[in-house]
Specification:
The complex is a heterodimer of chains A (about 200) and B (about 200). With about 200 residues, chain A is an all-alpha fold. Chain A has helices at about 10-30, 40-45, 50-55, 60-85, 95-105, 105-115, 120-140, 145-170, 175-195. Chain B has about 200 residues and is an all-alpha fold. Chain B contains nine helices and no strands. Classes of the chains: A mainly alpha (about 200), B mainly alpha (about 200).
């Protein structure tokens, strides 16, 4: 089904506005009651968006939340892409930017860690780690012999970064993003770069 | 009182079996303590003597697996050099492949946070053992906390994929990958003369 047959700029903006409104409404409601108790009806009522319109944009409440988490990752990806492609060094600043992104969304991040939606967040980490690794590997023409094994590498990094970020949020950002980026990069880079650059996989 | 202990162990063994059996036929969230008791053939009173709720039984099952893992690695860590090679990783993967049936039931939606919490507590113990045995000075416990969570998340995700793929790679292959990804960074962070302080 063609939902938006004419994707002109005007319409594009309207779509973005509606989605933004739905996301901010969801987060507003999450501050008031547990995520598991919220319904699409609640979100529509509060935002003034009609239910049919909601379903033009999202399949479900989970889908909307995923959309929000993804929007954070999209911004992250845009900021790190140049660092990934310019050199094989995997600049530690990439990790720093990851922490910065979450700190910029501190209020919402707090809501997310207490909402019991770990599974959903983890899937988005996985998706973006995969995207970032893929970009890095393609940009530098690295030979990957075993793509099945590569999936494990992605999951390793997704799980590790997810847990570190979640702890940092839970503990109310006790350390700055620079130091966190440095800590995280110091754990992940030595092993990962050896693995990717020496054709061990 | 050996007889009482024996009875306890027997009841817990029956409950572990009952848990597996119930998890095989329905989602974990739907299982009740009553069902577990019926399947194990024990009374609810006995159940609550050992476990405070449903999750406590699942936690106990996972803990039993971890205890076996801990016993297997304790010797090698005590006797080994600070660079553990793939020893610890090999035992980690072996432990799960020795419990395939449970593994395939426990990596299901909705149990992530309970299990990751357990993983974190196990890794805290293993890191503690490692640090004690090698006399590594810890100047920054906060940093250690992040390292624990890092490993908990990484091992959880890798095991989950492995279990979901029905153990598609050999234990040694994944143990090798895991050690390769973990050790250079971790050894550097732990053994480096001055662990710089976070904050």
């Amino acid at each position: 089904m063609e939902v938006f047959p004419v994707m002109n700029k005007e319409l594009d903006k309207r779509v973005e506005r509606t989605r933004g409104l739905l996301m901010s409404t969801l987060l507003e409601l999450m501050a008031e009651k547990p995520y598991s108790k919220l319904s699409v009806a609640n979100i529509c009522e509060r935002s003034g968006v009609a239910r049919p319109t909601f379903y033009l944009h999202y399949r479900s409440k989970d889908d909307l939340l995923k959309g929000y988490i993804e929007s954070i990752f999209i911004k992250f990806y845009e900021q790190v892409e140049d660092y990934l492609t310019q050199s094989t060094n995997a600049d530690p600043i990439i990790a720093e930017i990851m922490f910065k992104q979450w700190q910029e969304h501190a209020d919402d991040a707090r809501l997310l860690v207490s909402a019991g939606v770990e599974g959903l967040i983890l899937i988005e980490f996985q998706r973006y780690v995969a995207r970032i690794m893929d970009r890095y590997i393609t940009a530098h023409n690295l030979p990957i012999k075993d793509s099945g094994m590569m999936n494990y590498v992605v999951d390793f990094i997704a799980g590790a970064s997810f847990m570190v970020v979640m702890r940092w949020i839970r503990e109310e950002f006790p350390t700055g993003p620079e130091r966190m980026g440095e800590l995280y990069a110091s754990l992940v880079r030595p092993g990962l770069l050896q693995l990717l650059l020496n054709g061990k996989i | 009182m050996p007889e009482q202990l024996e009875q306890k162990q027997k009841a817990i063994g029956q409950l572990h079996d009952a848990l597996l059996c119930c998890m095989a036929s329905q989602p974990y969230q739907k299982i009740t303590v009553r069902q577990l008791c019926d399947a194990a053939g024990i009374s609810r009173q006995t159940y609550y003597q050992y476990f405070s709720n449903r999750d406590a039984l699942l936690t106990d099952y996972v803990d039993t697996m971890f205890d076996a893992f801990y016993q297997a690695i304790e010797g090698p860590i005590q006797e080994g050099t600070p660079a553990p090679g793939i020893g610890i990783s090999t035992h980690l993967f072996a432990q799960w492949s020795n419990n395939r049936e449970f593994a395939s039931l426990v990596f299901q939606a909705g149990l992530e946070s309970l299990l990751i919490r357990r993983f974190r507590s196990y890794i805290t113990r293993v890191m503690g053992l490692y640090i004690r045995e090698h006399g590594i000075p810890v100047t920054d416990p906060e940093r250690l906390g992040y390292m624990t969570d890092y490993l908990a998340g990484a091992s959880w995700m890798v095991l989950q994929r492995w279990v979901a793929s029905d153990f598609s790679y050999a234990e040694s292959e994944l143990a090798g990958l895991f050690a390769q990804l973990t050790q250079p960074g971790f050894l550097d962070a732990l053994i480096r003369p001055n662990v710089t302080s976070v904050s």
